[in-house]
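does this look right to u?? biotinyl-5-AMP version
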Amino acid sequence: MYNIIKFDTLDSTNNYAKKNIEKFLDKTVISAEIQTMGHGRFQRKWISDVPENIYCSIILKPENKKHAANLTQYMCVVLCKTLEKYKINPEIKWANDILINSKKISGILCENVNKKGIILGVGINLNFEKETLEKITQPATALNIETGQKINKEEFQKKLLDHFFENYELFMQQGFTFIKIDYLQRTKFIGKKIYISSENNKKTEYIAKSINDDGSLLVTDNQKKEIILYSGDLSF
Ligand code: BT5
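got this back:
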């Protein structure tokens, strides 16, 4: 169904998958114990020096890419459901973060490689020392801290990927509407005042109104004008 290729160290699983995409079949997962240059959006650093955490990239080569732009949101739902098996309540922060008690536990980075395919990269903090988390430039947490127990990485990764691929074809046929209810149940920002910042860190204030059927965010600005957003960083 899917195939995992494991490395001890890579600069970034996304970079490696991008460079070598032609060598790999659809549904190949590149996983590394550590990354030396793990990154998020806009080349922001992703702290990746703990082997008990997940750093992986799924290579996807769908025939129909109509709903590919929503793969991050699909992964957000799959990841929340996997975390919920550990009896915790994760929250989705549009567009690509998973939080627990307002602290970031995971980030997703989806990249399109021309016509060759899509790379869906995921970083998940399963096991972190509290002191190491303080290196991170925003409030962050890890599953071991939330549950009080060391987390078995292989077991978690298998649960996540099995669940991802179980409904992947259906999602790619139906798109965001397939996960809309599950997605909305795990968001807390609808109806609230939010700030969206773009690459240059300019923050704009909006009211979050709803999530549209294509996964975009409907907001109103301070003139009450409706605006549809497709990307950006959300804060409260
Ligand atoms: C993301 O970016 O959240 C997407 C991160 C994707 C990482 C995966 S790991 C496997 C694959 N290979 C890669 O090279 N990348 C992907 P963004 O929304 O830009 O958030 C980045 C911000 O998250 C940083 O500026 C920090 O504030 C914070 N951060 C960094 N490392 C973190 C960590 N381990 N846990 C929680 N937050 C972190």
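The CA atoms of residues 211 and 217 lie 5 Å apart. idk if thats expected tbh
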